[in-house]
Specification:
Layout lengths: L12 H13 L4 H11 L5
Length: 45
């Protein structure tokens, strides 16, 4: 997989908590969940 970083972004904690709740509530494929979490934390693997 080729990964390129264009910029660093940060999301507000309140948004991240809501997003985490959605990820737990629905059956989201692991790869999609990793993509979403990568938007919040560039160090997440």
């Amino acid at each position: 997989m080729i990964v390129e970083s264009y910029q660093t972004i940060q999301l507000a904690d309140s948004f991240c908590h809501a997003l985490s709740a959605i990820l737990r509530r629905f059956d989201i494929p692991q790869e999609a969940e990793r993509i979403v979490l990568n938007c919040r934390d560039p160090n997440y693997l």
